Amino acid sequence: MSTQTLPEVDVRPDGTDQSGDDTPKMFHYVRKAKIAESAVMGTHVVALCGEVFPVTRSPKPGSPVCPDCKKIYENLPPGGDGD
Ligand SMILES: [Zn+2]
């Protein structure tokens, strides 16, 4: 078992869950501000990779991380956007 410690980047993993779709569920990295906005506005969120999906469900633990999000996330500067 590994513990994934996220640095101070203003994102969190979130997941797609498209019922009826056989696409594997994955974690995408989504900016927390986007998630909050989505919760309030009822809009979809945009993951780092550009994937757009509603924040309604969470992927199961152990779901794979979107490789595109992971690559982008790893290249983010620490501390997020800053000012
Ligand atoms: Zn992604």
UniProtKB/TrEMBL annotation:
A matching Pfam family: DUF3039
InterPro entries assigned: DUF3039
Region (Disordered): 1-24
Superkingdom of origin organism: Bacteria
Protein name as annotated: DUF3039 domain-containing protein
Source species: Lentzea jiangxiensis
